């Protein structure tokens, strides 16, 4: 029968079965299969083998020599020749080995003759030539694996100390030589792994130091709900009893019988099989005695007893009472953990109508199906159980845009043509094989950035399952031009189709509880056949969700000696049960339970630890190995089943360490860290598989206080370390421990190690307290409900994804086709975007990105100190208001075929767009919520909930503009962003013009606000001016509103985005407000910030300027003195710097302190990555010859090393002086030189910079209108030297000193010397002075005006006046650089010299009493002075500054 006929017969049979309502399985009858093997005993098998050998054609004869079959296998021959040739007996006695080797060689010679005709020689010779035998080398991984394996054997050996060998088949020879201290080579590798392990003697009265430990054996296929080791009421001795050895016993050697590895080695030497049996022995009082495992006989000579060194406890200053006091105040809320054991039956959760109410919180995608995780309520109780729902039947949805005409022939395209080509495409991609796909035409709209897509058109909508391959994006055909929806994820398709907006109650119809068993670790498991069986049940935002179980985690690690990676030594978790999603209570008010799992840092726990843990309120479990610790933690995690894991550094540090240690230690059921059962690790784990790691924990939410979301809620912090967060948010002091030092010193004792674990326990409380205080989980839920994405992604801080999902929901509801998600924007931008907005192309030479478009307008500030009231007028939500005001939307703005930098036109009057409508809805809802908050009857809990909701609405509305200008967003629309910012700039300009037309002075403006100097001293008058201006602005617009944001009593306006002010309120209270100044930057230490704050308060105090300057100078002297005398704690010297990239990727990292500290931390095993904030302190004694990077250390290193001290000179020069100089710049009465003198710094480097800066900052009138004193105040005098007595005088002209002006000429002022300066001598010395200044000008020295830089160079750079920094690479300084001696200074000097010899000027400047004398001398000196003046004029003519090129000025006219 042919294959086609057979297939037809099968189909007919299937048709008959369907007609009879039967299945093939019900009609299946098993058939007896033919036997494949014959069962023979050993004698029968020998007969069969002999009969095969007797066959003539078994092998083909070769040249008549024939082959010989001796019954030996090839590997047996090899073993006889190689392995047995190196037995231990031969190596022990050379003579015996020689004789035995001779007999062996004779036997081998006979055997070799018998095998000359054997076919085996051809294979053996080829094998020997093909591959040489390499010596196996033991790697670190092999040793660790063997140590772990033998460690498990040691654990099982606790109660079985002796080994008895029973003969299995044949008897061993009566006289068998055993060597206890010289084992064979074959066991060497095993014995090396067993060195330094304590073994026991084979004594019948031996009793182990601890009872046998009961091990837990779990099967992946069985629901492992083991929690026996976490019974809070029963403290099992197996987990707390630790054996201790006498240190002195490690030096004793004793003759023992062969250990287990040696026994195995002996078994290999023999030909007989042996069965190892361990008899159970009675317990008695003995001690473990170590054994010498080296092949060296013990030295029985008496040695001097070496006492172990006493452990130095350098951490005695650590006060454990600090965190013990925190735990004491929480003890009254401690409760026992009550886990929900086993699975929950379906009848306990299902409703009477067969439906199910399910609150979903997380999801994962596996095998083309969507898996939801959440909670269901157990009927008849107030408890909730974790639930897993598998959603089947979700179809991929594609939209094919038909062409108008066929691409090749030009014929008109019908929808049937598109259908045919799609059918062919799906068949070619193996999509339509074995799966049903559907298609139908449907109308859709498009309003995004592809110009060749019509606004409205008919599309071919195609549905096929997600388990089939994905159609490549960008695929085109003969009859269709575009395909949309190829990259849509299952989750996105599901929430858009079912209109699910974040975590909410779902109504599930026809749930199926079978066929899904043990797919997850949840208590309830079910599946649905179609997503249409799932719908929202109620309002996602207002419905009360189930209570959550929170677990805050803290781990402690140590650095492994082999791979220098962190290894976990303890895990502490604090569990808060029944915490509401909108919980407003603080952590200290909630009931909690806590557990700690630990293992010894070395071979055993410190002495006294076992007795110290008894009676502890916290459940402390001990394990011997890291693998056991992780297994116990997973068991606790499964029994507790928390919904949310909270931690500091959870995503990058704690979770990453847990995942990699679980894999490294090969822990079974590692996937219990999440709620999804898995068979294997992700393939890309450890190779940049960030999302692969996050998928493992799916089902449990992770709340990290140090990620982007957490940082945005704690903007007062700078480093976001846990210590700083506790201080700023909780107002509690947290002691920072040096982990490495503590393990070696403080935690080396039993009580110290317990206190060390107590520190981690207190951290779990503080982490939970911060999370509840900032309301991060309720806020994340509200944000997710507004956006319609997943709560896990919101908790990770993905703001751009929230904006995408809220727009996806809105446009999908209005039947729009949305842009596909591009996961590699850089590559797709070149092909998809025709506006040239490519990141690689828009990069400046300095590595910074070019502006995609112009942003907000920033007006030039009028710098200075203002002591009158200044109004800050601010537009409320400027960009969202502009979008609403001018109806800016994807659907309204015509932007087709626009040049790249052209701003589109404002849309004409038309229907309100989707984006303005969405923002308007959010704004209106926020107003309603704020109206509810004004109700005096509202409870504190209600006020807290409403505040979270209005905050979520505000964040969402204000971030909607961001998706327009974010390049990696699927809704990126550069023209719309340009139009929005363009209108913002125009609004700010018109507002300034309106203020100036009202006789108001605008001193500064930034994007959405203006500062107006009211020039009044009365607060009411200032408010009246503000209200009048507010009404005038608001009358211009329909939705835009401006309001009085702040009223500044005094304002120090430094530069753009940098100012400090005294904010005045209606009740008369004042608050200092600082923006952009150095004290707000983390790069400055706390001392610098305190000094700047003190000086700023003095400046804004309104006191007499002279008194303020005096107090500032005195304060700076006292601070400098305290720093030099080390009176300030070193922790206040800490500098925080954020890493913009991985520390190993910095090209100039050797000169960067933060990079060097980060690399040192990484070498110790700490997790350091890009965007981390590094804390460091510059050390030294002031006279250092090495750079700051080599003297930078972390605060923990300074705490552990008392010899390290902060460098006061470096801090005064780099951290104190620069911000103080900038703050005092606008104040008269002080300058950089005086400030440097108060700080004890070298003032020489600030003299030239101060002069140049003062000159450039002044307003320069015409020089002809200035007096000689003002014009020449910075010039140097003419220095003349007497040739006779070498006396030096400064000649200032005829008016300066008449004593040296005699009728005979200029006379030397030296005592007893009346020499006259002749005209040639006078000319020569004038020329010498001029040439010295000219030489200084041509040296072209440049100096940086920034006092903290001090750069002085002759290198001219291409950046204009920008300083290149001390390294000459354009980094490290942003100050301007100027010539120390400019052409203007040289020209003024020459002009000054010429005035000294101008007799007519001297006559005009003469006073009344000297006028007659000067007139006589002028006529006397006229001839000689004219000769000198002519020489000076020749030099003046060479100076280019005295010439003006009129051609260059008027050439363009």
From TrEMBL:
It is found in: Nucleus. Keywords: DNA replication, DNA-binding, DNA-directed DNA polymerase, Metal-binding, Nucleotidyltransferase, Nucleus, Transferase, Zinc, Zinc-finger. Its EC number is 2.7.7.7. One of its GO terms (biological process) is DNA repair. It holds the Pfam family DNA_pol_alpha_N. InterPro entries: DNA-dir_DNA_pol_B, DNA-dir_DNA_pol_B_CS, DNA-dir_DNA_pol_B_exonuc, DNA-dir_DNA_pol_B_multi_dom, DNA/RNA_pol_sf, DNA_pol_a_cat_su_N, DNA_pol_B_thumb, DNA_pol_palm_dom_sf. Residues 11-76 form the DNA polymerase alpha catalytic subunit N-terminal domain. Residues 1264-1450 form the Zinc finger DNA-directed DNA polymerase family B alpha domain. Signal peptide: none annotated. Residues 1-121, 153-221, 822-853 are annotated as: Disordered. One of its GO terms (cellular component) is alpha DNA polymerase:primase complex. Residues 834-843 have a biased composition (Acidic residues). Residues 482-725 form the DNA-directed DNA polymerase family B exonuclease domain. GO terms for molecular function: chromatin binding; DNA replication origin binding; DNA-directed DNA polymerase activity; nucleotide binding; single-stranded DNA binding; zinc ion binding. Residues 790-1227 form the DNA-directed DNA polymerase family B multifunctional domain. It catalyses: DNA(n) + a 2'-deoxyribonucleoside 5'-triphosphate = DNA(n+1) + diphosphate. Residues 30-55, 105-116, 822-833 have a biased composition (Basic and acidic residues). PROSITE patterns: DNA_POLYMERASE_B. PANTHER family: DNA POLYMERASE ALPHA CATALYTIC SUBUNIT. Belongs to the DNA polymerase type-B family. This is DNA polymerase. It comes from Arthrobotrys flagrans (Nematode-trapping fungus).
């Amino acid at each position: 029968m042919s294959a086609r006929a057979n297939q037809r017969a099968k189909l007919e049979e299937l048709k008959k079965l369907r007609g009879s309502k039967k299945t093939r399985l019900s009609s299946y009858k098993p058939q007896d299969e033919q036997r494949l093997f014959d069962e023979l005993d050993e004698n029968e098998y020998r007969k069969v083998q002999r009969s095969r050998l007797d066959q003539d054609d078994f092998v083909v004869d070769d040249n008549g020599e024939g082959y010989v079959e001796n019954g030996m296998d090839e590997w047996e021959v090899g073993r006889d020749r190689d392995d047995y040739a190196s037995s231990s007996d031969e190596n022990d006695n050379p003579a015996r080995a020689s004789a035995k080797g001779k007999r062996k060689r004779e036997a081998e010679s006979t055997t070799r003759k018998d095998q000359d005709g054997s076919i085996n020689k051809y294979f053996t010779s080829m094998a020997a030539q093909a591959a040489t035998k390499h010596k196996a080398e033991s790697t670190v991984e092999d040793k660790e694996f063997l140590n772990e394996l033998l460690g498990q054997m040691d654990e099982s050996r606790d109660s079985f100390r002796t080994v008895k060998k029973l003969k299995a088949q044949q008897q061993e020879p009566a006289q068998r030589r055993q060597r206890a201290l010289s084992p064979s080579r074959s066991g060497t590798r095993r014995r090396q792994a067993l060195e330094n392990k304590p073994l026991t003697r084979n004594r019948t009265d031996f009793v182990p130091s601890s009872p046998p430990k009961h091990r837990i054996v779990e099967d992946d296929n069985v629901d492992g709900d083991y929690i026996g080791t976490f019974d809070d009421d029963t403290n099992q001795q197996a987990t707390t009893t630790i054996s201790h050895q006498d240190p002195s016993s490690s030096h004793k050697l004793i003759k023992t019988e062969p250990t287990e590895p040696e026994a195995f080695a002996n078994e290999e030497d023999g030909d007989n099989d042996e069965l190892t049996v361990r008899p159970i022995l009675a317990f008695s009082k003995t001690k473990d005695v170590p054994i010498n495992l080296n092949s060296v006989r013990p030295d029985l000579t008496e040695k001097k007893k070496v006492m172990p060194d006493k452990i130095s406890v350098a951490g005695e200053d650590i006060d454990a009472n600090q965190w013990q006091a925190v735990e004491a105040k929480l003890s009254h809320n401690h409760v026992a953990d009550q886990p929900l054991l086993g699975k929950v039956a379906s009848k306990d959760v299902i409703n009477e109508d067969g439906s199910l109410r399910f609150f979903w919180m997380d999801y994962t995608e596996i095998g083309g199906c969507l898996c939801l995780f959440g909670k269901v309520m157990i009927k008849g109780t107030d408890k909730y159980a974790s639930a897993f729902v598998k959603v089947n039947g979700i179809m991929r949805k594609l939209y094919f845009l038909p062409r108008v005409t066929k691409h090749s022939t030009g014929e008109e395209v019908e929808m049937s043509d598109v259908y045919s080509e799609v059918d062919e495409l799906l068949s070619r991609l193996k999509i339509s094989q074995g799966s049903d796909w559907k298609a139908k035409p449907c109308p859709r709209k498009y309003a995004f950035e592809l110009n060749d897509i019509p606004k409205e058109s008919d599309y071919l909508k195609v549905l096929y399952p997600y388990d089939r391959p994905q159609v490549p994006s960008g695929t085109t055909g003969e009859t269709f031009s575009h395909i949309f929806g190829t990259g849509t994820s299952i989750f996105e398709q599901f929430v858009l189709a079912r209109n699910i907006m974040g975590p909410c109650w779902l109504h599930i119809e026809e749930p199926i509880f079978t066929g899904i068993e043990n797919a997850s670790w949840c208590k309830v498991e079910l599946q649905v056949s179609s997503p249409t069986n799932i719908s929202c049940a109620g309002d996602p935002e207002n419905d009360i969700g189930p209570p959550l179980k929170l677990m805050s985690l803290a781990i402690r690690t140590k650095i492994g000696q082999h791979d220098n990676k962190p290894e976990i030594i303890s895990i502490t978790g604090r569990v808060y049960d029944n915490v509401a999603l909108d919980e407003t209570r603080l952590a200290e008010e909630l009931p909690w339970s806590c557990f700690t799992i630990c293992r010894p840092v070395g071979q055993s726990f410190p002495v006294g630890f076992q007795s110290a843990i008894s009676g502890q309120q916290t459940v402390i479990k001990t394990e011997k190995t890291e693998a056991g610790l992780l297994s116990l933690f997973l068991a606790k995690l499964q029994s507790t089943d928390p919904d949310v894991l909270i931690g500091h550094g959870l995503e990058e540090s704690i979770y990453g360490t847990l995942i990699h240690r679980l894999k490294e230690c090969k822990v079974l059921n590692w996937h219990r860290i999440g709620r999804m059962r898995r068979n294997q690790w992700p393939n890309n784990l450890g190779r940049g598989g960030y999302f692969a790691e996050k998928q493992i924990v799916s089902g449990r939410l992770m709340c990290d206080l140090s990620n982007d979301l957490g940082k945005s809620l704690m903007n007062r912090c700078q480093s976001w370390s846990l210590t700083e967060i506790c201080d700023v948010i909780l107002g509690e002091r947290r002691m920072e421990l040096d982990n490495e030092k503590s393990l070696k010193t403080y935690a080396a004792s039993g009580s110290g190690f317990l206190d060390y674990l107590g520190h981690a326990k207190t951290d779990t409380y503080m982490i939970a307290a911060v999370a509840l205080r900032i309301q991060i989980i309720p806020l994340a839920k509200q944000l997710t409900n507004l956006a319609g994405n997943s709560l896990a992604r919101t908790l990770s801080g993905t703001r751009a994804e929230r904006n995408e999902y809220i727009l996806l929901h809105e446009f999908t509801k209005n039947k729009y086709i949305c842009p596909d998600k591009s996961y590699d924007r850089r590559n797709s931008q070149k092909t998809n975007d025709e506006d040239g907005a490519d990141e690689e192309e828009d990069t400046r030479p300095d590595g910074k990105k070019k502006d995609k478009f112009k942003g907000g307008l920033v007006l030039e500030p009028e710098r200075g100190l203002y002591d009158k009231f200044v109004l800050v007028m601010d537009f409320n939500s400027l960009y969202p208001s502009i979008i609403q005001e001018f109806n800016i939307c994807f659907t309204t703005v015509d932007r087709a075929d626009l040049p790249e930098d052209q701003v589109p036109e404002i849309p004409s009057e038309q229907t309100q767009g989707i984006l303005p409508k969405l923002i308007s809805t959010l704004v209106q809802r926020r107003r309603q919520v704020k109206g509810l908050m004004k109700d005096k009857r509202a409870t504190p809990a209600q006020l807290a909930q409403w505040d979270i909701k209005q905050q979520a609405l505000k964040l969402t509305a204000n971030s909607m503009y961001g998706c327009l200008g974010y390049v990696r967003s699927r809704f990126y629309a550069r023209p719309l962003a340009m139009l929005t910012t363009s209108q913002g700039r125009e609004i700010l300009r018109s507002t300034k013009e309106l203020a100036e037309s009202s006789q108001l002075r605008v001193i500064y403006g930034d994007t959405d606000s203006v500062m107006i100097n009211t020039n009044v001293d009365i607060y009411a008058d200032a408010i009246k001016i503000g209200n009048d201006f507010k009404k005038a602005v608001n009358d211009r617009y329909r939705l835009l509103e401006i309001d009085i944001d702040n009223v500044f009593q005094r304002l120090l306006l430094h530069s753009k985005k940098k100012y400090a002010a005294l904010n005045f309120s209606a009740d008369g209270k004042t608050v200092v407000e600082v923006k952009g100044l150095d004290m707000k930057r983390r790069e400055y230490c706390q001392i610098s910030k305190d000094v700047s704050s003190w000086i700023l308060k003095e400046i804004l105090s309104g006191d007499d300027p002279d008194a303020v300057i005096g107090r500032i100078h005195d304060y700076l002297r006292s601070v400098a003195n305290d720093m030099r005398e080390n009176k300030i704690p070193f922790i206040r010297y800490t500098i925080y710097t954020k890493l913009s990239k991985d520390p190993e990727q910095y090209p100039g990292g050797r000169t960067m302190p933060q990079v060097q500290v980060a690399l040192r931390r990484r070498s110790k095993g700490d997790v350091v990555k890009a965007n981390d904030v590094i804390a460091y302190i510059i050390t030294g004694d002031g006279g250092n010859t090495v750079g700051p990077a080599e003297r930078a250390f972390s605060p923990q290193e300074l705490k552990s090393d008392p010899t390290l001290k902060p460098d006061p000179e470096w801090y005064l020069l780099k951290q104190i002086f620069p911000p103080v100089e900038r703050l005092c710049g606008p104040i008269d009465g002080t300058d950089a030189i005086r400030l440097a003198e108060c700080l004890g710094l070298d003032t020489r480097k600030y003299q030239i910079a101060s002069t140049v800066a003062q000159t450039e900052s002044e307003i320069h009138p015409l020089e002809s209108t200035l007096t000689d004193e003002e014009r020449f105040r910075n010039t140097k005098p003419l220095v003349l030297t007497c040739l006779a007595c070498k006396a030096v005088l400064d000649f200032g002209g005829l008016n300066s000193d008449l004593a040296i002006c005699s009728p005979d000429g200029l006379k030397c002022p030296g005592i007893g010397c009346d020499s006259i300066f002749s005209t040639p001598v006078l000319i020569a010395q004038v020329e010498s002075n001029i040439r010295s200044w000219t030489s200084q000008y041509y040296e072209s020295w440049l100096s940086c005006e920034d006092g903290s830089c001090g750069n002085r160079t002759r290198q001219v750079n291409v950046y204009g006046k920008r300083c290149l920094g001390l390294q000459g690479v354009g980094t490290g300084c942003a100050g301007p650089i100027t010539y120390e001696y400019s052409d203007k200074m040289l020209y003024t000097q020459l002009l000054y010299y010429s005035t000294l010899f101008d007799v007519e000027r001297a006559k005009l400047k003469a006073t009344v009493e000297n006028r007659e004398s000067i007139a006589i001398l002028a006529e006397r000196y006229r001839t000689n002075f004219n000769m000198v003046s002519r020489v000076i004029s020749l030099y003046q003519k060479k100076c280019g500054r005295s010439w003006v090129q009129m051609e260059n000025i008027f050439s363009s006219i």
